[in-house]
Design brief:
Elements lengths: L2 E4 L5 H12 L3 E6 L9 E4 L5 H10 L5 E4 L14 H29 L2 E6 L2 H5 L5 H21 L4 E8 L12 H5 L10 H12 L8 E4 L6
Parallel strand pairs: 1-2, 1-4, 2-3, 4-5, 5-6, 6-7
Length: 222
Amino acid sequence: MKKALITGGATGIGKATAILLQQNGYDVYITYNQTKPDYEVNAIKCNLENIDEIESAVESIGRVDLLVNNAGVSIIKMINDITVEDYEKMTAVNERAVYFASKFSALKMIREQSGAIINISSMWGQVGASCETLYSMTKAGIIGLTKALAKELAPSNITVNCIAPGIIDTRMNNMFDAEELKEEVPLGRLGTPEEIAQAVLFLAESPYITGQILGVNGGAII
């Protein structure tokens, strides 16, 4: 049975992905920090701002066949209002944690000469968003990491891909008016966490796809 590790798997996209992977035969582990999962899954408490805790989480599950770097935080502010603390927290969770979770998992995958890493970025990492400069920067960094790491790990038969979700119906977007958000999407609705999960499963089971950025955004950017 393949083992999958999903960061930030207690709610939203991470939860939907964990459930779908379980339904498809994966032994799934998730990390969580403040919010405990409300469904049956192997859960590891892990503060992703702490590199030692990330390494411990990866080591605790033994073999890693699939890593899904899902966890992320968002801050909506003008750049002149961004503090050093904002910068440190967002880059720690959205970039540094992705980098080191990938490193520690890749070490195991290289020994097995197989594996898959899937990074959850954002459409704002592709085109940028006003008042989300910091979020856009970190999500663009994930795209760059995906492309570089795909080249580096390909000789070890490890795929690295990225999903760039559009406006998804998760608690991160609860502060906005849903009807107004729908007007920004050509398909006329918000995406669901389950639709992102389907994209994760597709890439996880596609051994000849690597280094790609898959937009799941309802046509919000084309």
